[in-house]
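Morning, I've got a small favour to ask if you have a moment. It would help a lot if you went through both lines with me. I owe you a coffee for this, so here goes:
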Amino acid sequence: MTTVVFKSPGLVPDLRLTVFGKEFHVHSAVLRLHSAFFRKFLDSTEKPSSPAGTRNLFKYDYVSVVDDDDSWGLEPISMVRCTSRPQQTKSCSFQPLCKLPSATTEALKDLNRVKTEQNAFEKVLRAIYCLSYDIDSVCELEDVTRIADFYCALPALSSSLYRGLWKDTGLITSWDGIFTNADTVLAVAKKLRHPILFREAVIIIVSQPGRWLCGREDFLSEDDDNLKAVVLRAHHRLCRLKLKADHHVREALRFLPITSKSVRLSWHPEDEFSGHDHYTQIMNKLKATTFNGNEKRVADAIRSLEALLKNNLVLTKPWNGINGGCGSSFYCTEVDDKDLPWDETETDW
C-alpha cells in the first residue's frame, strides 16, 4: 500500500484519506481552509462515531466508496462500516472497506483508471498545499478539475495552475494539448475561472478559419450560450482588424510607384489562403519599398498589418509555429476583462 505524507509547519497529520488503497496523510486544518467539502463534513453531526475498541491513529479517517453510477467519493470509515451490508461489501485489492456494487467492481479493476483517479486526487492535494505538479494532457486537466470541483477546491486548483502552465508540459506541446482541444480547455477554464487559460483557448478557437464557414452554426462544440457569445465577440474583433488592414493596404497600393509592381501583384485579400504568412510578406515588402508622397498611407497600412499579425498567445506561443510561419491563422484577438463569463469578485465557488 502506497502512502503519501503531506507536511505543514507546526502541524501533525490528523486526517487519513485512502483512495483505492493509496493513503494520503494530510492536515484537517489545511483542507478546511481550501475545501468547502471538508469544512462542511469533517465534523458533521450526522457522522457516526467510530466503533468502540478501535484504535484511532488519526482524528479523521476517510476511504473511497464507489456508487452505483460508477462514480466515487470519500466517506468516513465509520460510516462505511455502519452502512455496508455483507452482500454489498466485497474485498478487493484497492480498498477492503469500499462498498463496491457488483456492477462497478469490474470497472474499478481497470488499473489504469484507478491510477488516473489516484493521480488526479493527489494533484488536487498538491494544489491545496501549494506544491508543484505537472498537467500532461487536456484529459488530465479535466480529471483534476472534476475532482477539485467535487471537493469544492476549484479556487485552490485555479491559483496553483499559474505555476504549472509555464512549464514545457504535454498540455502545451502534445497532440492532446490545447491546440487540438481548445473547446474542451475553454469549458474547463471557465469552470476554473482561469483568465489566462480561458483567453488562450478563445484565441486558438478564433484563429481556426475552418470554424467560420458560411452558414455553419456548430463553430463551438460546447453548448453554452455564454461561451459562444465570448467567442463570437472575439471573432468579430479579429474580423474588424482584418478589414481595417485590407482597407489600408488597398489605399497604400493604389499610389505605389510602378517599380513596386511586385507588391501589387502579390496582394490577393480575397484569396481564402491569404492568411498570416501572406500578410507578413506584404508588410515586409511595404517596409522595404521607397515611397514618394505616400508615406502616411503606407504607415497606416503597416500599423494595421502589425495589429493583425500580433500574437496574443501566452502559453502556446513558443509552440504554435510562429517562428516558422502561422499559415492562415491569426492570433491577434483579445478578450476584455468585462467579457470573462464569471464574477471576478467571487473568491469561492
